Amino acid sequence: MTAPILPVAKALYLCDYHVGYSDGKVDLYGLFNAIRPPSGFPYTRGRFCVFAQLNNGLGRVPFFIDVRFAETDELVWTTEVRELTFPNRSTVVQLALTIEGRRFERPGLYILEIFCDNTWVCDTPLLLR
């Protein structure tokens, strides 16, 4: 079995939810990069979506998403390992992962990171204030 070729990210977004269509189009609703909890901390976000477009990968590529508290680089949460399939190098693969019930203990800057085959691919900040 040959090792997969890792993809690169075209974009990474956080949104309230997404809708994918059979023609490959996607609607992202409620894009955000900051949250102001109405009642302080700790704060539990009911659900949100991490959306990325990845290309130039090849083969079956395991991936996961980490959430880190930026000030200390502390890993506060990670997803289970899942798999993306890139049939050829020119295919754009859309990753949409809904995260439910994510608890944030304190205000500050968080970084959401995508790793493919245990290698960092991209990240995006999330400010909780």
How would you describe what is shown here?
The chain is an all-beta fold and 129 residues long. It has a single domain (8-128), classed as Immunoglobulins (Immunoglobulin-like, Sandwich), CATH 2.60.40.10. Helices cover 0% and strands 64% of the residues. It contains no helices and eleven strands. The protein has strands at residues 8-15, 17-20, 26-29, 34-35, 43-55, 59-69, 74-78, 82-86, 93-104, 108-116, 119-128. The strands form three sheets. Strands 4, 6, 7, 8, 10 and 11 form a six-stranded mixed β-sheet that branches. Strands 1-5-9 form a three-stranded antiparallel β-sheet, with no helix packed on it. Strand 6 (59-69) and strand 7 (74-78) form a beta hairpin. The chain starts with 7 loop residues before the first strand and ends with a strand. The mean pLDDT is 95.
Summarize, please.
The chain is mainly β.
Count of helices?
0
* Strand and helix order: EEEEEEEEEEE
Number of domains: 1
End-to-end separation: 47 Å
Subunit organisation of the chains:
single chain
Q: How helix-rich are the residues, as a percent range?
A: under 10%
What spatial form do the alpha-carbon principal axes imply? globular
**Major pleated sheet:** 6 strands, mixed
Number of strands: 11
Mean pLDDT: 95
Tell me the strand percentage band. over 45%
The CATH architecture is Sandwich
Key traits:
129 residues; mainly beta; 6-stranded mixed β-sheet
Summarize the SSE layout with pairings.
Elements: E1 8-15, E2 17-20, E3 26-29, E4 34-35, E5 43-55, E6 59-69, E7 74-78, E8 82-86, E9 93-104, E10 108-116, E11 119-128
Parallel strand pairs: 4-11
Antiparallel strand pairs: 1-5, 2-3, 5-9, 6-7, 6-8, 6-10, 10-11
